[in-house]
Amino acid sequence: MTTVQGTPLEGIRVVELGQLIAGPFCGQLLADFGADVVKVEPPGGGDPMRRWGHQVEGKSLSWAVIARGKRCVTADLRTPEGVATVARLAEQADVLVENFRPGTLERFGLGWDVLSAANPGLVLVRVSGFGQDGPYAHRAGYGSIGEAMGGLRHLTGEPDRPPSRTGVSIGDLLAGMHAAFGALLALQARSRTGRGQVVDVSIYESVLAMTEALVPDYALAGVIRGRSGAVLPGIAPSNVYPTRDGELLLVAANQDTVFRRLAAAMGRPELDTDPDYATHAARGAHQQQLDELIADWTSGLPAEEVLARLDEHAVPAGRVYTAADMLADPHFQARASIIEVPDDVLGTVPMQAVAPRLSETPGRVRWTGPELGAHQAEVVDDLPVERDAS
User: Fold this and answer.
1) Per-residue pLDDT tens for 208-250?
2) Which single residue of 216, 221, 261, 347 could bond 313 by disulfide (Cβ 3.0 to 4.6 Å)?
3) Phi-psi region of 283 (alpha: psi -120 to 50; beta: other; left: phi over 0)
4) Burial of 359 (C-beta count, 10 Å sphere; 0-12/13-18/19+)
5) For the chain, which domains are there?
6) Which family does it belong to (predicted)?
7) Cβ-contact 249, 264 below 8 angstroms
8) pLDDT classification of 387: cutoffs 50, 70, 90
9) How far apart are CA 39 and CA 89, in angstroms?
10) 328 φ, ψ (degrees, to nearest 5)
């Protein structure tokens, strides 16, 4: 079975030509919700993600996640036979995802004009660093560059240090998410028009899309937002605070009503009416001294007691989790936020569950990232016999 009965994308076939993260994360999301994602890799080494990240028993754990639920075949696009195989796959597909540098697909003889002529309903999702046009379109564009030019790196880190990064490839992941969203929008449009279209996703614009009021803050208010460490300037209290037993807790109580409850939890109800803290603007203006007050309170108590008091007063708070914390947490367990997926080499692989959760047609992870060419026979044999060009 290639699709999951009752899933939102049951019956949708996706051909994935991407590699590394941005394009393949789009494919992962679509596969999670039941699409038949056929991943095409070059013979020999396949997608470099097979060798990235931590390895156990010779298998990349990153690959186990990002290629989950996909069927893997090989085709060498540098040969006429490989191009013909991909062309035949595209004729039978609903969506084709690629993240080559712009112009590469055309050099293979698989440009939009060719693909859409053979399959007018095809949706072509194109993921690149800078988009399919414009003066930078030809440039190589990794996720980190998109994070920098999309504005995220300038905002990330401590103000007295160079820009930092998150612990994951967030630029690539945002591009993959926008690519999946774009594919679904194009499929919805096709249901009305019968025709596919091109979805042009750039990494830098995918990052830019998440930067809230960054641009109008500068253009209209003259404010260049910068790095502010663990806080957002003017949003207080919302920070990481130490406890007596050495843990760190994130406490977010910047709304007026929530701050009132925090003051009560601290045994300092008078803070709610103190002119320095009584309003959102006042708390923002006195952010550092307010953080010091809260840190003085949390550092005198063990983490469990702080959390219990905050929970009693409905103040949002939580530990800064590692993977070990997630695996041990009863809420994660109750909701099956981390699932165990069978794997021929590793036995089972714990990984994040499908998100979001749908009540009637939920997604499902069918298998971990397969071996190179694991589905060659069943996928290629399913293809119709190539038409005689004459």
Assistant:
1) 999 999 999 999 999 999 999 999 999 999 999 999 999 999 9
2) 261
3) alpha
4) exposed
5) 13-210+336-382 (3.40.50.10540), 238-321 (3.30.1540.10)
6) Belongs to the CoA-transferase III family.
7) no
8) very low
9) 11
10) -95, -10
Distance CA 61, CA 86 (A): 27
Q: How far is CA 38 from CA 63, 67, 94, 180, in A?
A: 15, 10, 11, 15
Q: How many residues does the chain have?
A: 390
Residue 133 falls in the annotated catalytic set: no
Burial tier of 167 (Cβ tally within 10 Å: 0-12, 13-18, 19+): exposed
Integer Cα distance of 372 and 74 in angstroms: 7
Split at pLDDT 50, 70, 90, the class of 1 is: very low
**DSSP line for 133-172:** SSTTTTS---HHHHHHHTTHHHHSS-TTS-----SS-HHH
Strands 59-60 and 55-56: antiparallel
Residue 360, SS3 per DSSP:
coil
Indicate yes or no: pTM above 0.85: yes
Interval 181-191: pLDDT, tens: 999 999 999 99
Integer angstrom CA distances of residue 293 from 32, 59, 254, 297, 381 = 46, 49, 14, 7, 69
Residue with the larger pLDDT of the pair 342 and 389: 342
With 50 as the cut, is the pLDDT of residue 35 above it? yes
Q: Active site residue: 36, 172, 200, 343, which one?
A: 172
Which residues 6+ apart lie within 8 Å of 342 measured at CB?
A: 348, 367, 368
Cα–Cα distance for residue pair 68/191, rounded to 1 Å: 28
Q: Could you tell me if 55 and 61 are in contact, meaning their C-beta atoms sit under 8 angstroms apart?
A: yes
